[in-house]
Specification:
Layout (H helix, E strand, L loop, with lengths): L16 H16 L23 H15 L7 H4 L3 H8 L32 H11 L4 E6 L6 E4 H17 L7 E5 L4 H12 L3 E4 L9 H15 L3 E4 L4 H8 L7 E3 L1 H5 L15 E6 L9 E5 H15 L7 E3 L6 H14 L3 E4 L1 H6 L2 H10 L3 E4 L1 H10 L15 E4 L6 H11 L9 E3 L1 E2 L6 E4 L8 E4 L1 H7 L13 E4 L3 E2 L4 E5 L12 E6 L11 H7 E2 L2 E11 L2 E7 L4 E3 L2 E3 L1 H9 L4 E12 L6 E9 L4 H19 L5 E5 L14 H9 L10 H11 L1 H38 L3 H19 L3 E4 L11 E4 L6 H8 L4 E6 L6 H9 L3 E3 L4 H16 L3 E4 L17 H9 L3 E7 L1 H4 L12 E5 L10 H19 L22
Parallel strand pairs: 1-10, 3-4, 3-5, 5-6, 9-10, 9-11, 11-12, 12-13, 27-28, 29-35, 30-33, 30-34, 31-32, 31-33
Antiparallel strand pairs: 1-2, 7-8, 14-15, 15-18, 16-17, 19-20, 20-22, 21-22, 22-23, 24-25, 26-27, 34-35
């Protein structure tokens, strides 16, 4: 058998390329639509979709015919971008005669030394990447096939360098710790640099799928707008060509302040500051594909992801000797977590191609496994079906799949027919039946939830139809039962994880009884981002609801369908995927483009069975014959007919980004009467999107105007008030008068600003003795608020730098402020002595123990001066918390906004000694109270405290 794939005969290009191209297009179009006479008048500017009727699969066939006719290899992107024959012709004029990627096979990957152990101590994805960079920086991590036939080899060090450049660019654009960054990029190296760059910058990546077809741009952008708004993304990373369309999103998404490319981010400086990440920090936001409703953002932490990757690797026995081959989209959890993160963790080389490369020529996937001796690959069921339907024997002459050890099949319902036929057909090419590995997972469990033992192969369960549909009992069927239903085992729960099946009341059901699948384990999400209602429905105590129906037999999980997709008709449970698969096998119906769903009849309030099937047939007689065949098929399956069978043109059945049928969305379109309506022109969709963004822009503009006006007013009031305060303080003769005026003017300013201030705990302030007060520092407004609400007997301790400014020095010194040095230890000791003496003389002193403040919320590490003073003087320490000022005027911003302020005064703490241990105890007790008062996170582990005031041993 020849070692090279079949080389088709080609016709060299001629000057009549346009006529030859149109001839090919007409031939294929007439094959798709033999009754559409208008095809014969097609020209270079005819619409491939609206006028010539080319759907996605039709485009695949067309590109293959054009390549054979002209002897060229066309870019895979043409599947998505070509709108007219002229677009194809323009590409033909620049395309040289090149062999296919599957024909020009690259040299096999050189064997790599084995990595003894993966980074088992790593707690975050960033630590995993850093571990590999330190251990083997030049080890190849990724072999990426882009537009060229030769793969780009990327090492761990190169990945890290590209990611750091993106991280620096994000931080230069003001990305704060924990902020969301949306990534709308195709499969490319830029995606990897962006994803890990966001993590290295301290942000949270939100992968989005890019638009596949311009003709569907409106539906796509509206869908992405809802995700961006839900995620509160502040930055969107996309390709340069998509920035214009992305700005249509920006008009409708509040808070999206920057739309940039990887090149723009990477062109900045090298000022990357590594953030401190914890295992429980959010690693990324995975939006569900939305097959049953609005997409929801699944919160996944570093701990969730690493627990899932380690559990899957434990079952599969994954080591660095594996080679993972993938074409899966990077915005989908199977591609991102399973392929990319899994191979990163275990140091497996990852061979990656784009989804378009696979869809255009499915044999590329199999040839890549052959060429790189791939051992692991994964795909949804439709991919295995596509290989069966689209790959000719001539395309895979010499193919060898004997290296393939684990062929994961998941992410959508698994067809027993598909896995059986795939094993049979490709067995002659070295594919072993035990390689096929059906699995079960979901985004809410990071990725995997159940795996079978490796090498076991497919386990099918045949059950009696009638008991199953009427009562959900999976009774084993006899071998000669031709009506039996078949289900595929997805294995058993991952190590450390649990799965149970419960009934509607929450009680676990018996074996072989269908019920609701619930799960728990370290991979499980904590909920949906900014979606408390759906999060509440997700949890049942400690268990999470999957939304799937399943049963357990012999310890194995058998998933039977989605709860929301189940159709209940005449007391029987109808599973739509069985109908969809059977109807899709009929000649004339597009395979995988059938939707079956229930729709409530408003007259009888009963559920009607509706089937929508895509077809290219336009002749009325042929369509009626198809309807009869569909109805007969359903009667044979269910013993009852469908209430409504609709034959619709291609692109009618809505699908998710991962290819699942969106039955709920199809039902909604059906009930609105929109099924079968042609897609609007791209210009009309873009116009509608632009118009939809007008009102949000107007509202944003008005809000911006009011904010600017308010800021101008606030600064004017503050300027006048500050001048009056400084003059009064400078001129009044006594301290008590100066403090009284400062308090009154501060209260007046707060009223003029419109800041309501609520004070709680004033009764905790000692009335008959001095004390030391400590309060968190959130904004420049804090002193103004505290002067307004606290008794005038309290004085402030401020940093020495303020004493070096003329106006500040006059103001604060005339108000009795004590200045302390933060950086010179000896001066700090002297300043501490002076403050201690003031307290002993009966003055109450207020400290900001953090010493500074920042933009991000959180209580920073404390300096010890206040606690040393309180311990050595024996006076009560009063902790306080101030909230609201950070939102009104943040660090680094001079644009005040309206808001409310609250000051909470905690219970006094008496020192239990005068030594260093007593001061430490005061600090810790005060910190605990202040965290409760200010309602902000504890950032002490994330910052290193600067030089603090030393404890002055041997004094007082």
């Amino acid at each position: 058998m020849a070692d090279q794939p079949h080389q088709p005969d080609v016709v060299p290009p001629t000057d009549a390329s346009a006529d030859a191209l149109l001839e090919v297009i007409k031939i294929v179009a007439l094959e798709l639509h033999p009754h559409r006479q208008s095809i014969m008048s097609a020209g270079l500017d005819s619409s491939l979709e609206r006028e010539l009727g080319f759907d996605s699969l039709g485009r695949v066939e067309l590109l293959q015919r054009v390549e054979r006719a002209f002897g060229v290899q066309l870019p895979d992107q043409l599947l998505a971008t070509a709108e007219t024959p002229r677009d194809l012709l323009r590409t033909l004029t620049t395309a040289g005669a090149r062999s296919r990627m599957v024909d020009a096979r690259p040299a096999k990957t050189l064997p790599l030394s084995e990595v003894d152990t993966p980074p088992i101590r790593a707690g975050t994805l960033v630590e995993v990447l850093d571990w590999h960079v330190q251990a083997h920086p030049d080890r190849p991590h990724l072999y990426f096939y882009g537009d060229r036939d030769v793969a780009d080899e990327i090492s761990y060090a190169q990945l890290h360098t590209g990611a750091v450049a993106v991280a620096a660019g994000l931080q230069e654009r003001g990305l704060q710790h924990g902020q969301m960054v949306a990534i709308m990029l195709p499969t490319s190296l830029d995606f990897f640099y962006s994803f890990y760059g966001v993590l290295l910058a301290g942000g949270v990546p939100v992968p989005l799928y890019p638009p596949a077809r311009l003709s569907q741009i409106e539906d796509h952008l509206r869908r992405q707008a809802s995700i961006l708004d839900s995620a509160r993304a502040s930055i969107l990373i996309t390709v340069a060509e998509g920035q214009g369309l992305a700005r249509l999103l920006g008009a409708q998404v509040e808070g999206l302040r920057s739309i940039v490319t990887v090149q723009e981010l990477s062109s900045g400086g090298d000022g990357h500051v590594a953030p401190t990440l914890q295992p429980e920090d959010m690693a990324f936001l995975q939006y569900t594909s939305g097959s049953t409703g609005t997409p929801k953002g699944v919160i996944l932490t570093h701990a969730n992801l690493l627990a899932n990757i380690r559990a899957m690797g434990q079952v599969a026995g994954t080591t660095s000797r594996e080679t993972f081959v993938s074409w899966l989209p990077l915005y989908h959890d199977m591609g991102l977590i399973g392929a990319c993160m899994g191979s990163l963790y275990y140091a497996c080389p990852l061979v990656l191609m784009s989804p378009l490369a696979f869809l255009a020529r499915p044999q590329r996937w199999l040839w890549a496994i052959h060429q790189h001796r791939g051992t692991i690959s994964a795909a949804p069921n439709f991919a295995y079906e596509l290989c069966l339907r689209r790959i000719d024997a001539l395309d895979i002459e010499g193919l060898d799949l004997s290296s393939w050890q684990i062929a994961l099949n998941g992410a959508e319902p698994i067809s027993p027919e598909t896995v059986t036929r795939f094993c049979e057909r490709f067995g002659k090419y070295g594919f072993r039946p035990q390689t096929m590995t059906p699995v079960y997972g979901l985004a809410e469990s990071s990725l995997g939830a159940a795996f079978p033992p490796p090498g076991r192969g497919v386990r099918l369960d045949r059950v009696e139809r009638d008991p199953f549909t009427r009562s959900g009992k999976a009774i084993p069927a006899d071998e000669d039962d031709s009506t039996a239903l078949r289900f595929v085992s997805c294995g058993r729960p991952l190590p450390g994880h649990q799965i149970r099946i419960v009934d509607a009341t929450g009680y676990e059901v018996a074996e072989r009884q269908v019920g609701h699948l619930q799960f728990q384990g370290p991979s499980a999400t904590s909920g949906y981002f900014r979606n408390p209602e759906d999060t509440r429905r997700l949890f049942d105590g400690d268990w999470l609801n999957s939304g799937d129906l399943a049963y357990i037999a012999g310890g194995d999980i058998y998933v039977t369908g989605r709860v929301k997709d189940l159709i209940i008709r005449a007391g029987r449970n109808i599973y739509p995927q069985e109908i969809e698969e059977a109807v899709g096998d009929l000649p004339g119906i597009r395979k995988g483009c059938v939707a079956a769903f229930g729709s409530t009849d408003p007259a009888s309030n009963t559920e009607r069975l509706v089937v929508v099937a895509e077809t290219r047939e336009t002749d009325a007689t042929a369509q009626e014959h198809l309807r009869q065949q569909i109805d007969a098929m359903i009667v044979d399956l269910l013993g009852t007919s469908a209430d409504d069978v609709i034959l619709a043109p291609p692109q009618t059945v809505l699908k998710t980004s991962s290819g699942k049928v969106r039955r709920a969305a199809c039902r909604e379109r059906y009930e609105q009467g929109d099924i079968g309506r042609p897609q609007r022109a791209v210009w009309w969709q873009v116009t509608r999107l632009a118009w939809a963004g007008v009102l949000p822009r107007l509202r944003q503009a008005w809000r911006r105007v009011t904010e600017v006006l308010y800021a101008g007013y606030a600064w004017s009031v503050l300027g006048i008030g500050a001048a009056a305060l400084w003059s009064a303080v400078a001129l009044l003769p006594t301290l008590s008068w100066r403090k009284a005026v400062a308090r009154s003017l501060s209260q007046l300013l707060l009223r003029l600003f419109g800041f309501p201030v609520r004070v709680r705990g004033l009764e905790h302030l000692p009335r008959d003795q001095a004390c030391v007060l400590v309060v968190n520092h959130a904004s420049y407004l804090d002193p103004l608020v505290l002067v307004a609400v606290l008794p005038t007997s309290i004085s402030f301790v401020a940093k020495q730098e303020l004493a070096e400014q003329f106006f500040a020095r006059i103001l604060f010194r005339r108000l009795g402020t004590e200045f302390v040095e933060r950086f010179d230890p000896q001066r700090g000791v002297d300043d501490t002595d002076r403050v201690r003496q003031a307290v002993r003389q009966g003055r109450s002193m207020l400290f900001f123990p953090e010493g500074t403040f920042g933009r991000a919320p959180g209580l920073r590490p404390f300096r010890m001066g206040a606690f040393v003073v309180a311990a050595q003087t024996g006076v009560p320490l009063v902790p306080m918390g101030i909230t609201g000022t950070r939102s009104i005027l943040r660090a680094g911003q001079w644009f005040p906004r309206r808001g409310a302020v609250a000051v909470t005064i905690g219970a006094p703490i008496m020192p239990q000694g005068s030594d260093w241990a007593a001061a430490i105890a005061l600090r810790d007790a005060a910190r605990a109270q202040m965290l409760g008062c200010c309602h902000e996170p504890d950032l002490a582990p994330e910052f290193e405290a600067g030089p603090s005031i030393p404890f002055p041993s041997g004094r007082g």
